[in-house]
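User: I'm designing a mutation panel for O-phosphoseryl-tRNA(Sec) selenium transferase and want to avoid disrupting the core. Could you give me a predicted structure to guide residue selection? Please restate the sequence first so the numbering is unambiguous.

Assistant: Good idea. Sequence first, for numbering, then the predicted structure tokens:
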Amino acid sequence: MNRESFAAGERLVSPAYVRQGCEARRSHEHLIRLLLEKGKCPENGWDESTLELFLHELAIMDSNNFLGNCGVGEREGRVASALVARRHYRFIHGIGRSGDISAVQPKAAGSSLLNKITNSLVLDIIKLAGVHTVANCFVVPMATGMSLTLCFLTLRHKRPKAKYIIWPRIDQKSCFKSMITAGFEPVVIENVLEGDELRTDLKTVEAKVQELGPDYILCIHSTTSCFAPRVPDRLEELAVICANYGIPHIVNNAYGVQSSKCMHLIQQGARVGRIDAFVQSLDKNFMVPVGGAIIAGFNDSFIQEISKMYPGRASASPSLDVLITLLSLGSNGYKKLLKERKEMFSYLSNQIKKLSEAYNERLLHTPHNPISLAMTLKTLDEHHDEAVTQLGSMLFTRQVSGARVVPLGSVQTVSGYTFRGFMSHTNNYPCAYLNAASAIGMKMQDVDLFIKRLDKCLKAVRKEQSKESDDNYDKTEDVDIEEMALKPDNVLLDTYQDASS
């Protein structure tokens, strides 16, 4: 309702009451105006009525919601199901145009405004999270792997001779397949073991750059967030290598926005060397449905080049989801979630440490990994090859999701490349282990329930091992008695001693 509508309403209802309602509406409109003027995430989150008012105001700016619209084209925002239309708040046209995902659509001013505001808010949050000098970013309706592929395809036009991507190993399929899908040959750099941690082998990286030649290398593809005992790559040193040899640097920052340490590494890498773009997931960092990512960087023109590489229009759903989430939380709400995540990491670490010691195991010392933890499973692996994987199955059937049990010697082939010790980020890690992570949104009750169920599962696996050990002892004893006449006394004694031990 505008001023004229309120004035007309005063003829039907007491003017004092109408003016009060008008003032209430202005308070909503004031929040919306500040958002449009500043382009930053509000400090305090909005209530649902303000959010819905804002989304409705944007939606009626799209041509498919015009009262007198007459569409005679092949794509006019027609939707067969009213439920689908409501699910999308009647934003039907998507974002971007055929030549640029960030371009404005003439027939969808509201959706275009939504896209611009979302990108502006996300940029603000990235700065708040620690990457203060980021120049530009945009939300893309693809998960992290395909978003990395888009970055590599953009670099292809800048480096026509390049056919290799140098990649410090991380055992995660999508980031590996992103390079294959883009048509490049990954050069896998094995990590080095330092204490319990798996860290970047900088000497081998630089040696490979010299061996292959900088012109033939598309980029170095590094990683921040990862499963322990691997830790974030040495981004500062890799950035310096990239700057020295004139090689682009793309960072997989999948769930690193929630970690001040990961964001600090990116900021420092850009300060001392070269980082061209860093990619992060929407669902892992902002608690929205899977399907979106943020591509960000320190060179505005290069980020624009990536957005123009995206073919065709795109779904607005990921942008809409993260816009609603950030406006609901506000910057203070998001900072609170980041603070709580750090606290939960410390709590989870302490609880796993206590439990591991009770079972003669230990929490691996991985101080450079700010999100993921690992607990050894040596006593399980020593007694039974299948006990480790059995523990993982037991946790899963007891509704523990996210925990990863990593056995020794697993072999996996991904897009024609064979990885030994797959999931452990190295060919021969010293022991089997279990992963758990403290990610954004985790609560204390999640940790307590996980520890309780893990304790029960470890007891059950140990009990099963003890039973099998007793069965094996009985079988050995029977065989020894039957074969007593065939064995010298000293051999028989040794056999019994082995069985007893």
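For picking mutation sites, this is relevant: The chain has 17 helices and 14 strands. The CA atoms of residues 254 and 280 lie 4 Å apart.
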